[in-house]
Amino acid sequence: MRLDDERMSDNVERRSGGGGMRKIGIGGGIGGVIIIVLALLFKQDPQQVMQAVQQVQGPGGGEESVSQVTKENASAIEIFSSKILASTEDVWKQEFERLQLNYEKPKMVLFTDATTSGCGAAESAMGPFYCPADARVYLDVSFFNELEQRFGVKGEFARAYVIAHEVGHHVQNLLGISRKVQSMRGRLSETEYNKLSVKLELQADFLAGLWANHAEKTRNIIVPGDIQSGLNAASAVGDDKLQEAGTGRVVPDAFTHGTSEQRMFWFKKGYETGDFRQGDTGIGLGGR
């Protein structure tokens, strides 16, 4: 990626010294990967492990330090993450203006080991996630190492895809799409609600692709191989691939994020069209 001349976002903070487990917030497009990896290592069903973790709320511990990430005090990966967030800010500000709406920028929290969020406590093992209660993307940057070492997904753009996907959930939150889906939780069976969850995640993949399209057109930050890197990341976390690796079988009724093929399709559609109107995966476009 060409990021040398790109600005850093003013909406990134660094936290360290927190503790505790968390309830899963909306939209971990890749947000359960580390737990799934642990499940595979111990030969457990990833879906069952994820459900168990969602019910656990461990104690927090210790005071944590909080500071804004700036060019002067940031590591290379923090600078990279901040520049990607800044790029999403620019793209979505323009897109919301086209929709005659105001884009409220999300915050991004880069933490070490654990911290707290509006959705409960957060732990690095859970991977990146978006919390609608405080409009923040939470990310332990060590996840990027796991993405490469455990899944063989390499390249800067794979990392950018992770951030852009979670920002996609912020867009869904602003447009009321996430609330619409969440309101159906108690009115549907688990299988039927899982289908809605898949549609929500696939739309976030589409929105990540749409960001890439506009970032390339306006800032020329995409280089050859980047999009394939994003597709590889989307493929690596398909429900079918993870289930087969963990249990040797695929259970479509338990899907919550979509198959590898579906995730690649919607990311690619967002990238190729760059058209928000093409992103209805079956849950609407927030009335637009």
TrEMBL record:
InterPro entries: Uncharacterised_pept_Zn_put (IPR007343)
This protein's UniProt keywords: Membrane, Transmembrane, Transmembrane helix
UniProt entry tagged with the keyword Nucleotidyltransferase: no
Membrane topology: Single-pass membrane protein
Cell compartments where the protein resides: Membrane
Segments traversing the membrane: 24-42
Broad class of the protein's primary localization: membrane
Top-level taxon in the UniProt lineage: Bacteria
The protein's name in its UniProt record: Neutral zinc metallopeptidase
